[in-house]
Every structure is written in structure tokens, then in C-alpha cells.
Amino acid sequence: MSELKIINLLRESNDGDITKFNNNTRSSLAISTDLNKVEVDFEWLDIMEDTIHYIDNILRNPNRFIINEEEIVKIELARRTTVESIKHLARHTNFIQKIEDNGDVKPSKILNTNKDESYDTYENRLIYTLINNMRNFVEIKKKSIITESSLKDVKKAKYTAKSNVGKEQVFIELNYTSSLIDKKGAGGEMSVEERIKRLDDDITMLSNTEVYKTLKKMHVARVIPPIKKTNVILKNTNFQYAMRLWDYLQNHVADDTKSVKSKKNYEDNGILKEYLNNTFLMDYLAISTLSEKTTKENEREVISEITDNLIQRIVELNLDMPLTTLQERIGDKIAIIKTKREASISEIQNTFEKRIKAFLEQIENTRL
């Protein structure tokens, strides 16, 4: 509906005035922009929180392998005799001290075998390294943590213009300000600081497990890429989640926070200024309707005054004519004019003037 009104306003306006207005328009547009945008990526926090449970599962059921420690000890120090000990003694008869009459063999030394479980597996060292990487990553984030994304976008414009149509001078000044300020955290019931504190506690919990402390005491070497795709790493669900976190930390060493700052002040002479020039024209045409309304009201007052004068003169010129006859004649003329609805205003005015003139001449002749 608004578009139709604007179109009607243009159609009803004088094309010549529009041309003069546009040709005489002189304008300036000063623009000021201030943009400060910070986008914080909290994906790392989500992934770590999701993965803690799976790492804990791995450490509760760690991979182990058996270590056989063999050493030659004096017979009195031997803890137990195993099949391996007998086989070794059969191959090393020099350790036989004496053979009893009943056939019993008394060795001087014997092979002692100790079996022990070790956590020093590739998979365990991988998780050990991952926990250390998690701690380092969190420490880096804590030093430069930005707890929320934010947006500040302020735009200001000052538009001034002047024009003239004939002797009419037109001036406009527009001051525009747009301000957008928005902040967005990581979401959830807990704040970012609280979530990081909880994550710190979880990493500490993982570091206090028997597997981690044992590997740390052994000073095992950290695992470095590329990762060996063992059956456990490929097929175990817990390790699949752990590897997703491993890959993320490897690919997001740098800070993922994106910051954009821009501040500009300039004079615009492009399409934006052209838009406002068009708006200036529409404002002029809209306000000009006030003058048209005043003119129409004046015209009605003038017509009313002329009509009163004409009627007064008609009456004065024919004082002897009966009032009913006078009313009938004037009424007839008005009825004739009203029936010509399709005639233009100028045609109606001409007809009315001719009828009045003829009527006045008739009255004058009657008096004579």
C-alpha cells in the first residue's frame, strides 16, 4: 500500500518541478562506521568434556603385556623352579653341583624367571601423551581466554542537501545513528570459567590414575605423529573418541578466536547518496501537497465570493422578478451543468459563464 502511495505521489506531481528539483540538488553524505566483532570458538571445550569419559574408560582397563625377567641366581636365592629353569639347567650342565645316588640333581646355580605386567604399551603411551596435550592446551586457553563472542556495530550518517524550484528554496538535514551491541557466551547452565575449572579437575583426576603415574615415573617417550593404526586404536570405541580429540588438538594449535576491528570516516558519493537524494525529492513532493491544499482552499473561498457577488448582482438587476422565478432559472442552469459530468472543469466553467452572461443580458433587456 505504501509503494502505491509513493507511485501516486510521483504521478500527480509536476514533471517539470521534479526535473528542476533534481537538477538543482546539491548534497553531501558523511559516513562513520565502528565495527568490533569477536567470534570465540568453544568447540575445544565441548570435545574435551565429551572425551573425558572415554579416556577414563581406557585408563580403568589399560593394555598390559607380560615381561619375563630371567637371571642366573644361586640355588638358595631361587624363588621357584619352573620348566624353563629345568630346560636351562639341562643345557648348562656346568651349573650342576652334584648328582645324588638316588638320581636327584643338586645345582649350584639355576635360572630364575620373574614375570611382571607392564603398562608401557604404545596405546597407553598414546593416552598418556594425549592427557599432557590436553593440559597444555587448556593452559594456553586460560592465559588468553575470551569468555564470550561479542559484536559492536555502530553506523552514523549525516546527510545535508538543498535545492530550489523557481524561487522556492528547500533544505534538509538528516542525522542517522544505528547501534547494534550483542554478546553471546558458550551456552549452558555453567559459565565458561566454571566449565574450564571442572575440566581442569577432570584432567587432574586422569593424571592421578595408576597407569598415568606409572608411565610418568618410567619417563616414557611421548607419542608423536603419525599415529600407528593398531587394532585397538582402530576398533575400540573409547580410542576412537580419544583419536577424535587427538586430531582436533593437532589441527588447532593456534588461537581460533576471530577478531575484526574496523573504524572508518568518509564522504559517500555512490549509490547510498543517490538513495538519499531520491528520498529528499519524495520529502519535497510530500510536503508540497500542503501548498496544494492551501491553494485549493483559497480557490474555494474566491469562487464562493464570486458566486455571492454574482447572485447579489442578479438580484439587484431584477428586483421586480418574483423570487420563485429567479430560483427556478438559476436551478435550471445548475441542473444542466451537473448533468455534464464527463465535461472538463474548464468546459463547465465556460458553460457556467456563458449561461450567467446570457441570463444577465436577458434581465438587462427585460428592464429596458
Report on the structure:
The chain folds into three domains: 2-61 and 122-267, no CATH class; 67-118, no CATH class; 318-368, no CATH class. It has twelve helices and eight strands. The chain has helices at residues 2-12, 15-24, 43-60, 83-91, 122-143, 192-207, 210-218, 231-235, 237-251, 271-317, 323-339, 345-367, and strands at residues 26-39, 65-74, 96-99, 105-107, 109-118, 149-165, 168-184, 258-267. Helix 5 packs across helix 9 (237-251). The two termini are 63 Å apart.
How would you summarize what this structure contains?
The protein is of the alpha+beta class. It has 12 helices and 8 strands.
How many structurally independent domains?
3
Order of helices and strands: HHEHEHEEEHEEHHHHEHHH
Strand content: 15-25%
- The radius of gyration computed from the alpha-carbon positions, rounded to a whole number of angstroms, is 52 Å
Write out the strand line-up for the largest beta sheet, numbering strands in chain order. Answer: 7-6-1-8
Helix content: 40-55%
List segments where confidence is low: pLDDT < 50 over at least 5 consecutive residues: none
Computed structural class: alpha+beta
What integer is the average pLDDT? 81
Distance between the termini: 63 Å
Biggest pleated sheet? 4 strands, antiparallel
